[in-house]
Amino acid sequence: MEIAVTNESDIFIFSIRGRLDAVSVPQLEERLNQWFEQSGTKLVFDLDGLDYISSAGLRVFLTTAKKMKARNGKLCMARLRENVKDVFTISGFIALIPAFDTLGVAKDAIQ
Amino acid sequence: MLIKQMPARVESLHDLLTFITDEAKKKCFSEDARHRIELVVEEALVNVFVHGHTQHQVQVEVRCLDSDDSSLTIEIIDTGVSFNPLSLADPDLQPDLNARKIGGMGVFLIRKMTDGVAYRREGDNNILTMTVLNR
Asked: Do the chains contact at A22 and B93, CB–CB below 8 Å?
């Protein structure tokens, strides 16, 4: 898994590529924990390069959503692939974190 | 029947998943079916890694049972403490973020993404059988 963090003004974008599973989850948790040390309130997960997610990955997304809510922040996801979207839909997580087809729409949504 | 045995720890995960997804590829399973297989096997294995702890090193075995080209039946066998994952209640799929609890999704995904799942205890082994149809 590869994670790239970029920002456009106050919107931070986590681009996650590869596999988000029980092996790689600690890497994402560490990167997010670093980010949460700062006071950012706008976060987008760009999942265009994400091939696979399991419940270990879902757990990190839920924890992040709760932390963002606690600081009155905004979180959303963009560009979910079909199989990744299926996991979010079946688990009901799609109702917890807004998902958008393009990065542009996602950024506008939390502007 | 194909069998792969490894220590029950997260470091074994990718080798065990590759073993099973290679089988699904050989059987020309659809991308969607292969994805479901990979996901449910990971969820079952991670449960073993987390719940199986005893004094001794727990072993886990993935078996690919002989079946026709339209389905794949997988057994996950471990020597850990007796644990039936199917005894867990389904999580509350609360659409409210504050109320939504963390965890419990692994077994739920197994139930939803397999076409059949069963647990049995045989001697000192937990055996989880999962069937996925190629569709």
From this structure: no
